[in-house]
Design goal:
alpha+beta; 6-stranded antiparallel sheet
Amino acid sequence: MTLPPLSTSVLSALRTPILVLGLASMLVLAGCGSSGTRRVSYETEEFDSTTTHTRSYAATEAQTCEAARRALLSQGYMISAANTDLVTGRKSFQPASEVHVEVEFRVVCAREGGKAGKRSTVAFATALQDRYGIKKVNNSASVGVGAFGSLSLPFAGSDDAMVKVASETLTDELFYDRFFALLDRFLEGQGGEEPEVPSVAPEAPRPAAPLNPAAPATTFPVKPVLSPG
């Protein structure tokens, strides 16, 4: 049994959906390929600069971190940790009515190799910026409906919540230059004094030996006594 040949209008009507479907498939595949090969930001990291986040100081670790702590305090940072080799602080900003930004500043102080007897410390500074935005959450109420259980019905009302929307490490060289310059000022204010060392009570002197040792005892012979016979 042979089918009658299709007319030109019928072939045209069938060809148009096929072409549209093929074009849509090509676009989808192209979109998937472009999204899969999209470069991420850290791929441009070249590890070529060693001056943006570091500075060297002719001081001890304790002196350098103490100067960093005072520098952050002078700019309104809340210090969350401070010891002889690590200082961290956090500060809040409000650039817009519905945007909240927090910057966490971290300074690590490490001894640097050098000539014998020469104090040298390298300070590593890193600032992490977290950005928060307001997210509105709709509220709903539950109403009991007899044998049907409870129904959740939305009503007019919402709660605002701060949600983190971005986080990145600051890499602006001028930002770190200003911090290190302030750290240097506080370090000079310390006057290069060594940290105080608790004093130790001197050991009590031992009693001196006598100059003239006692002479040894002398024994004398005793004459025997004769009994009367």
